[in-house]
Amino acid sequence: MKINAPKGTQDILPEQALIWQWVEKQVREVFRVYNYGEVRTPIFEHTELFARGIGETTDIVEKEMYTFLDQGGRSITLRPEGTASVVRAFLEHNLAAKTGVTKLFYFGPMFRQEKPQAGRFRQFHQFGVEVLGENSPLIDAEVIAMATEIYRRLGLDALEVRLNSVGCPVCRANYRQALLDHLTPRSGELCASCQRRLVQNPLRVLDCKSPVCQGITAEAPQLDQYLCEDCASHFAAVRRYLDAMGVVYMIDSRLVRGLDYYTKTVFEVVYQGLGAQNAVCGGGRYDGLVQQCGGPPTPGIGFAAGVERLIITLEKQGKLPELSGAPQVYLSVLGDAPKLKAFEIAQNLRAQGIRTELEYAGRSLKAQMKTADKLNAALVLILGEDELARETIVLRNMKKGEQREVPWRELVTVIQEELG
Ligand SMILES: [Zn+2]
Ligand SMILES: [Zn+2]
Fold first, then answer.
1. Ligand 1 centroid – CA 169 distance (Å)
2. The predicted structure's pLDDT at residue 245
3. Cβ(100)–Cβ(299) below 8 Å
């Protein structure tokens, strides 16, 4: 019986992998110039890390994690997101002691057992950053500006930043009470999820997509009127810096983000024209998270962005560059005698950085030319017994349809000229 990849996973085949490599390269370049260092954490962690770092009552921890007991009876979970692992690594290696501010990025697979749908996978990929140890609203603005720069660099200009402040535990407690006072009398009208949220985390009722719930929350008190002085001035400063950097944003008072650990600044980058689920990137400040994970009080801020959705968007918008996985040179060999020399030439071209494919089977010239054509090789070299005797090789430019005989010692120079 044929075995296929598990539901919700996909193979990224060579042609598609070129796109992934290109995206990854652009993303890494932005992180490089903003002076972020890469951290590669394990794909699995102790389950407890996510229970503490994401929150026991979140959908991720309650329903979506791949959790299993290993051979030693330990509870292990495939990472459903990047932040908890980065914070763990930050504490485990005492990175705070090395520099004042720690700026880290990651790029890799995450795992959540969600219902697979277009653009949503059970093994999916995210890149993201975490900045640990800095309170300044300047870093909030910088992180947001950097996120938008990544998308712009990839050619996605129709961006919108949605911004909000969810306050600190002090002002949020006041707001929570005001929101409960507003929602409780009408709790019977809320959808089933929101009735549950009302008990666990009433702020999340604000981002419910149900029109009935949105109607009820439309008249609810707004969080920004409840921000304490510190949170209000932090939020004002973030907006001022974004204005100064020319980052366009929209204040969205419904934006609370799914996770409980956010404090103060929360944001999403939205790509217009993606439909309902249009956030390509989301993040915010999480000043309480490091402590929640067992560390000393440490401010933090970060974002995470999905790669699959980004690539789908790039494809739909026609923003992908021409990427070729074709060999530059196909080396055709006729007869047995030239085989060893052909191999030597191929190795020499490869050493010069020229992407070279070689005929291995010794088929007819016609069959070899067919293969070279199928592979879309730019140049074909043909080495037969006559050329071997003359220490030359036939070079055919496939696009121009021209060919000529080239002495071996001129070959690299000629190929480089032909390839431009
Ligand atoms: Zn506050
Ligand atoms: Zn609802």
1. 6
2. 95
3. no
Dihedral sign from CA coordinates of 112, 121, 32, 13:
positive
- Residue 277 pLDDT more than 60? no
Closest CA to 263 of 228, 294, 295: 228
The DSSP symbol for 82 reads S
**Residues flanking ion ligand 1, Cβ below 5 Å:** 167-168, 170-171, 228, 231
Ligand nearest to the CA of 170: 1
Place of tokens 């209000």: 232
210 alpha carbon – ligand 2 mean position (Å): 5
Whole-number Å distance, alpha carbon 205 to ligand 2 midpoint, is 6
Any alpha helices (H) in 127-191, and if so which ranges?
137-153, 169-183
Domains in the chain (CATH in brackets) are 14-168+228-316 (3.30.930.10), 329-413 (3.40.50.800)
Residue with tokens 């790509």: 271
- pLDDT score recorded for residue 203: 85
- DSSP-assigned letter for residue 302: E
Q: What is the pLDDT of residues 59-72, one digit of tens each?
A: 888 899 999 999 99
pLDDT band at residue 365, thresholds of 50, 70 and 90?
very high
Contact (CB, 8 A) for 364 and 315:
no
Q: Nearest bound ligand to CA 186?
A: 2
Output the CA 283–ligand 1 centroid distance in Å. Answer: 18
Place of tokens 């696009």: 399
Whole-number pLDDT of residue 274? 62
Report residue 27 as tokens. Answer: 């993303």
Q: How far is the CA of 120 from the centre of ligand 2 (A)?
A: 22
**Distance (Å) from CA 37 to ligand 2 centroid:** 40
Ligand nearest to the CA of 210: 2
Question: How much of the chain, in percent, has pLDDT values that exceed 70?
Answer: 98
Biggest distance spanned by C-alpha atoms of the chain:
95
pLDDT tens sequence across 128-150: 999 999 999 999 999 999 999 99
Using the mean position of ligand 1's atoms as its centre, give its distance from the Cα of residue 135 in Å.
13
pLDDT category at 276 given cuts 50, 70, 90 is low
User: What percent of the residues of the chain are helix, what percent strand, and what percent coil, each to the nearest 5?
Assistant: 45, 20, 35
Nearest ligand, CA 265: 1
What separation in Å is there between the alpha carbon of 193 and the centre of ligand 2?
6
